[in-house]
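Job type: complex structure
Entries:
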Amino acid sequence: MKKLIVGTLFTALVLTGCKTNTQYIDPADAEQNITVGLSYADFQLAAQTMADEMIASPLLVHPKAAQGGRYILHVNNITNDTMQRVDTDQLVKTIRVRLLNSGKFVVTTAFNGEDNMTKDVRGLSDSEMVKKSSVKKSGTVLAPDYSLSGKILQRNASLDNGDTRIEYYFQLTLTNLENGLAYWEGEKVIGKLSGADTVAW
Amino acid sequence: MKKTLIIATSLLVTGCVTTAMQNNQYDSFEAHMSGADYLQASIIASDYAELDDKTGQVDDLLWAMQTGAALRFNGQYQESIQYFDAAEHVMKSEDTESAVEKGAETAGSMLGNDAMMDYEQTQYDGIMANTYKAWSFWQAGDTQNARIEFNRAEDRQRRAAQYFADEITEQKEAIANDAGENSDAVKQSMSSPETKKILAQEGFSPQWQAYEGYINPYTTYSNGLFFMLNGQSRADYQKAVESFKRVYSITQSAAVKTDLQMAQALAKGKSTDNFKHGVWVVFENGQSAVREEKRLDLPLAIFKNSNVKYTGIALPRLKARSKAYENITVAGYKTQEIADIDKIIGAEFDQEFPYILAREITRVTLKTVAQAQIEKNDDSGIGGLVAGIAQAATTGADIRTFSALPAQYQLTRFEKTSNQLELQIGQHSIPVTLSDDAKHHIIYVKAITAATEPRIDIINI
């Protein structure tokens, strides 16, 4: 009987030991609960570093910065060239927020279908419902000064001991639309190591 | 006597996955596949795959892949991707299964056969799952996800090369461990000249040579074509160059050479506007080799003088199926082979075979030891007979294989001179109208047998 109780207790311990209870974690913590894929912690780290570089760049100071002048930024295509099904907007969003908060840039959403309302509301002049004088005029939308584009790459390599070294490259380019020159380029590499047993996604 | 029956019954029960059962599963699926009734084939396969609608996960890896393939051939790209995604999920579980779990599974199968173990994906299974997903995304117009899947397929190819180089050595060390105190007998039976002679007579000798670098040229070519036609940067064109180089070095295909030159020009900065409108024809031809069971009697080292009733073993061997056509002709251009899937399947099978053989010899040794014990302790003579029958019934080869694959892939490409094309596929003459709006077109043709209507899909780029 004693043996049975011990056995039951042991089994219960083994079974409960396998279960992870739901708990809150710090999504920006890059030390614990790490995945081989890309997580918020990785996007956060890459985005912050690169946004801070842009903000600090002496080439990107608006000539009328003292009077509140800001450059208008258009976020173009960021290609996901990894093996992870992630949305590159995750990277872009943090960068946009940081750039906007810096007071040096504003981001336009009027182009490439990001927010069609800028265009759509100008078609409201024929609507009986809408007060004509409140309809946004044509010729008031501002064109962007800079375009941000880039990609996220993934490179996997096997180490001598069989483990996989995974590198994620976050590469961004800020092009001055006046002259087509890249005024800022940045790269942030995040490296991870995983076992050889399975694929890194 | 009671004890004897219990052992014999347990042998029968545990070895319940017989070759006949596996054949039954395949027969109904294959009947519809061969008739190009992909929808019905997918319904049958999905029944075996046991998809959980709530979690999106499947119970059976092999049948999830078969369902994914059948759905893809039926043009149901999103559903196909769902099944291949679920299959990849199981592949990951198989990969990360602990040594203890794997050992327990193998040990458990020792009273039965290999088919009792969970199906574990081959290297080419994984590569083809990602390649088919990539094409499905591409055909559904989702180039972003197609890119991810092509990257995954290439990474699986890198891992496969590593696997063939490394893990084979590790597996060698694992052989005969399951035999425990009988491991000497297993080794003796494995290496005996009689065993080797019988195996050679029955056609169990390595006959396939893998493609250089263990690549699947269809996957590598598809990767090159995607990154060339959907390239967004020089890095993409460079990827295409590397892929075409590898495939050209293997196939010497004139079409691939033209692709290589185009990708090289693009990588050097030549604008896409400088290239004339092109048509690529990818032809998925016939049905791949599958496994069949071969039963043979081996002289077992430790039972030469005993009175045991049955010491047979069952091994899988490859059986080639046929191509649908030698080639097809589009606008006067004939397709040529770029990848022989049977060669890929064969090379991996040859690598795996020594381990299948070792397991089977271990198994027959253990079962025969049990049979001999029963024989010895039972005066009636029935026990030995029952145990012998049980052993024969539980012996079976694992013939599970991703049978939805074609025998080969072929290719041709040419400059578009007209939007009206004629596809000459055996006795079928099929007109195709290309869209005016697209610059390039891929005509994807699948013919499973000559007796069925080929399937044609067009990707406009």
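Summary: Chain B has a mean pLDDT of 89. The first helix of chain B runs from residue 2 to 14.
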